[in-house]
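QA checklist item 7 of 12: single-chain prediction sanity check.
[x] sequence parsed
[x] length recorded as 421
[x] structure emitted
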Amino acid sequence: MKMCTPTRWLGARAVAVGSGRTGDCSCFCVTNFRNQPIITTTISATPRGTRRPFSVFYSYSSPFLAAAASSSSMPYDKELAAAKKAATLAARLCQKVQKALLQSDVHSKSDKSPVTVADYGSQALVSFVLERELPSEPFSLVAEEDSGDLRKESGQETLKRITELVNDTLASEESDRFTALTTEDVLRAIDNGKSEGGSVGRHWVLDPIDGTKGFVRGDQYAIALGLLHEGKVVLGVLACPNLPLTSIGNNQQSSSNEVGCLFFAKVGDGAYMQSLNGLTHIKVHVTDTGNPEEASFFESFEAAHSSHDLSSSIAEKLGVKAPPVRIDSQAKYGALSRGDGAIYLRFPHKGYREKIWDHAAGSIVVTEAGGIVTDAAGNPLDFSKGKFLDVASGIIVTNQKLMPSLLRAVKEALNEKGSSL
């Protein structure tokens, strides 16, 4: 250690013991065994007898310290790897079921939306894979389904088929070390999803099939998986088995026959897309257009999920010329993240409460791609309150250039709608 002035260490701070005169300054340099500098510090002294703290400036030049800083700046890597694996396997299971979809696969929930064998199978598979891949972490999953119907006598055949599908999917991935799951294993995996989430700790957020009506029709759906940490979304994965790898554009057509996209993002690291078969990923970014006339927008396929009339009014006020692109599920978030469109509008009908699993994964994919996701009043979405998002009127998604004018158009349209009631 080479020092210009003697020092002593107090915890993690170095305090100079020097003349203490105003304007004096101390510095020290810590070297390694090759006499290469590791830490260089300058300490600005204060007048003798004062209790003001020293001003300390550090610079690091050690390769090993740089590596340590690098590793600490890349959190959630293992969680993202596990999430990508889980979502990819769930997508494979869903693809199998969709191809052989039978009327007997469709159940009915209290809200009359269809629930499929794939819904349960996807949740069981994601739950099992995450818990296995991250054994050292407390496991909390906020998800859409529970096993209540499957535990009834009438659900036994469905449970048996789900278990077979989960086992077949896992065996195809890792036949050399796979031990078949029992029906009880599958039920337990599904019921892992009973967490309420919240602002403390880590919680996985899953929609096992987002866009079940699209799934039943053979159209777009997504396996949407996100991770909350202290109430903030820190990573997200969207598996979109029917979304083309190239832009769907305004006419919903693609020049490529290849379908199946996996979008993923973690906080501070950008957003990416790869094919479901795992080929090299590419970084994606939202469109940078600031001209509303060039800005096409996405909305829900089902009019029951979002007010098409309100979206049309907003588009007219904004000056959008292109017709809306209507597709199911958070595949809209994925398509917008790569610039297929510029705006996503969602205005559920009165009385509907948004769930966190409908937006967690998609929102971070878009924000890490350079976009903005807010409620209709311009407030950021709050995922820390449990299973529901309490938002003002609706959700809007676009790029930074278009957001100010979009918010004005939304406000005008909502005011007109309110005055007409």
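[x] summary fact logged: The first helix runs from residue 63 to 72.
[ ] second reviewer sign-off
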